[in-house]
Structures are given as C-alpha cells and as structure tokens.
Batch of 2 targets.
Target 1
Amino acid sequence: MLSCRDLRKSYVTERGAVTAVDGIDLDVEAGRFAAIIGRSGSGKSSLMAMIGGLSRPSGGTVTVDGTDLWSLGDDGLAGFRNGRIGFVFQFASLLPTLRLVDNVALPAMLGGTAVDAAIYGKAATLLARLGLGGHLDAYPSEVSAGEQRRAAIARALINDPALLLADEPTSDLDEQTEIEIMDELLAVNREQGTTLLLVTHNLALAEQAEQIVHIAGGRIVA
Ligand SMILES: Nc1ncnc2c1ncn2[C@@H]1O[C@H](COP(=O)(O)OP(=O)(O)OP(=O)(O)O)[C@@H](O)[C@H]1O
Ligand SMILES: [Mg+2]
C-alpha cells in the first residue's frame, strides 16, 4: 500500500545543502505495523514528511494505495492527504485557539461530506476512546502534553485514514502514558486494518512491529 522509490530530500541552508534522505526504497503492505528506528538526525522525520505529503521530495517517488503522491497538484495532494493519511507529529500540533473537539473535527469539516452533527459526534467518540471524554471543550493549553498528544491522535483518525503516520508520538511522555497511547495506535492498526508507520526510539516497542526499518545517514541499513 506504501512504496517509496529512490526517495531523496536535501535542504538548502546558508551553509550549503544538507542531505537528510539519501535514496530510500521502502515497501509496506496494507494493514502492517512498521517501525522506523534510527539515531537523532538520521532522516526519520524528513522521510515521514515526504510519505505524508507534507514535504516535497528532492527526488524519487512515494506511492500510497496506487497514487503517486507527488505527481498530484496542490489541491489533489491536500485532498488525498486529508482523506487518506493521518499524521501524528513529533511536536505539539493542535491549533491553540480551538477546543479539543474542534481540533479533532476540523479535518472532517474540511472534507465537507458529512454533516456537522455527525462529525462532532465522531470527534467526541474518538476523544472519549482516548480518555478525553471529560475534556471535549478544553483548549489545548488547558490539558497536559500527553492529553494533547492523544487529541492529536484522535484528529489523525477522524477521517478513517488508510495510512497512519506517527513520528515519535510518545517521545516526551511517561512510560505509562506511552503504553496507553501505543495501545490505542496498535488497536487501530489491528481492528481497522489501518497501515501504521511509527517512528520510535523505544526498541521494545519496535520489536512488536511486523517490519523494522533502520535508518542511518538518510539510508536504510540492514
Ligand atoms: N528544515 C531543515 N533545514 C535544514 N536541515 C534540516 C531541516 N530539517 C532537518 N534537517 C537536517 O536533516 C537531517 C535529518 O533530520 P530529521 O529531522 O529528518 O532527523 P530525525 O531522524 O527525525 O531526528 P530526530 O530523531 O532528532 O527527530 C538532520 O541533519 C537535520 O539537521
Ligand atoms: Mg524526527
């Protein structure tokens, strides 16, 4: 369902070009749980951003469910990303001026197919499932970092994505919260058949994956 071919990313900085991803070939079958591991700076987030349709590759292709992502126009890409791909970022990413329930509902409102009441019902259900049923009307600044992360997961799930990308979704959280959040992500993978690509520094967690992708210096290493 996911395939990357000779994927590359370089950043142009004042000090010259930095190669973050240096020719990655990767295939992940539908419904799989794949873990991406590698040291800080190895290119994991850069790879995820290209797979998620957020950062244009310097070279190569990303194909998701048969669609060559980066050959789509801007509108096509935005629509595909919103409808098919869920992204949980490494850093806090909720909109601060919206309540949690609005943050979660937003991607579905952008899709414009379901009615508002149905969308808000689903947003509330997802938040409740993630233990935030009592915080629907809270603003991000009024809940903890772990709660914000769980709301971000609910937001990533609102459109029933085929592909769920999670970039260290539990990095700065305590062990128990990490276990709870991971249990939710794995449940979505198992119960809904959502393909899960997870960047993690937790090797015990990575070992639960059906596929481990080890990245060093922007390449896949054995
Ligand atoms: N916007 C940018 N401009 C310039 N260089 C960048 C940019 N983003 C990342 N890099 C560089 O690209 C390389 C890969 O960064 P990336 O964020 O993909 O690593 P990572 O594996 O996700 O690291 P971490 O585990 O710390 O999150 C690093 O050398 C980094 O400094
Ligand atoms: Mg990163």
Target 2
Amino acid sequence: MIHDSKERYGGISRIFHWGMALLIGWQLLKFFDRIADGEHWVGQTLVPWHVSIGSLLLLLVVLRIIWAARQRNDRPPQNPATARLVAIGHFLLYAGMVLMPVTGVMTMLGNGYGWTPFGVQLAARGDGIPWMASLGSLHSPIAWLLLIMIVGHVCIALAHHFVKKDGVLRRMV
Ligand code: HEM
Ligand code: HEM
C-alpha cells in the first residue's frame, strides 16, 4: 500500500504527487502579481507565502527523487509504444520542480534579499552575488515552461481517462 506496485502508485508516491501538485499550483499564483501589481485577494493572502512554500518544495522534491529512485523497478509499466516519450516528459517535470526553487533561492541570495522561509532566517540581507542573480533571472522563463508542461501533462492524463479509458489516471488516485 505504501510502496508502488506494477498495478498502481503507492500511498507515499500519491501523497508526493498530489501534495506537490497543490503546492506548485499555489506557487504559480505568483503570476497574478502581474495583475494590478498584486493588489488583490490572491496577491495579498496566498502569494506572500511564495518563498516559504517554494523552500518547502525544494526539500520535498529532494525526498521525492530519493523515493522515486527506490521505487524505480516497482512502478506501473508504460505502454512500450510511448514509454520513451513518457520518461522524457516526466523527467522534464522533475527538472522543472528542481530548477524552480533553486533559481528562486538564487534570486533571493543573488540580489541580497536574504532567505527567511517560515520566519527562519537561513541567510541575512546583504550584498548581492551577481552571478547568482543572473542565474536567478531564469526563474520566470522556467516558470512559464513548467506551466506549459503541467497543462500538457494534465491534458494527457485526462485524455487517458476519458478518451482511452485505460486506467492510467486511476493508478495515481
Ligand atoms: C516550485 C517552486 C516555485 C515555483 C513554481 C515558482 C513560481 C514563480 C512564478 C510563477 C513567479 C512569477 C514569475 C513572473 O511573473 O514572471 C515567481 C516569481 C518569483 N519567485 Fe518563485 N517559484 C518557486 C519557488 C521560489 C522560491 C523557493 C523562491 C525564493 C526562495 C522564489 C522567489 C521568487 C521571487 C523573488 C520572484 C519574483 C522575481 C522574479 O520574477 O524572478 N520562488 N515564482
Ligand atoms: C504541478 C502539477 C503536476 C506535476 C508537477 C506532476 C508531475 C508528475 C510526475 C513527475 C509524474 C511521474 C510519477 C512520479 O514520479 O510521481 C506524474 C504522474 C502522473 N500524473 Fe502528474 N503532475 C501534476 C499534476 C497532475 C494532475 C493535475 C493530474 C490529473 C489530472 C496528474 C495526473 C498524473 C497521472 C495519471 C500520473 C501517472 C502517469 C503514469 O502512470 O504514467 N498530474 N505526474
């Protein structure tokens, strides 16, 4: 039940998948800062958690990768015709989940803003580090790419469920 099997993803993989999907969805609300400079309900109540939730996601993605590596040989099999594409797609989603928090932290440290997730000061405000700020500026373009990949991933999952009706969505719920 806790571990994955050939029939379905186990409890821990499903908690990682849906818990992180929720938190990443929350993080993407940061795009709403583009509307009226964030002077609205979303911008004032959900978006101020951005650095804290993003830092939590950094920890979670490390744990998820370790867990996925241990479950590698016991996961539900893919259709051989598309297995390679699926592997590339899932790899890119993992790359996005790693690069987003890493470039976020680089934005904070590179610009000398400090880093204080959940009120715990991990780095104080100070001088910026220019090379880190440069890499951190990739945060926004990668966020757009991740958003596109997530939309594609969700469409494929729904197509499996409603069009192909092959039970691929059910093994993750
Ligand atoms: C999975 C994790 C994360 C996601 C999905 C995410 C997503 C986003 C998005 C969508 C934006 C708006 C970009 C735009 O309007 O062009 C943004 C901006 C920002 N994020 Fe994140 N973020 C994550 C993690 C973090 C972390 C961990 C930090 C800091 C420790 C951080 C700091 C920032 C900052 C300072 C901005 C505003 C500056 C900028 O646009 O580059 N983010 N993020
Ligand atoms: C932030 C949003 C999401 C991300 C980053 C994400 C990422 C992933 C990743 C990396 C996998 C591979 C399994 C793993 O290692 O955990 C996966 C599997 C899966 N995801 Fe998502 N996911 C997201 C949202 C969703 C949503 C909203 C749905 C449903 C509509 C969905 C449906 C599925 C299904 C059905 C699988 C299993 C596919 C298979 O067995 O081959 N995902 N997801």
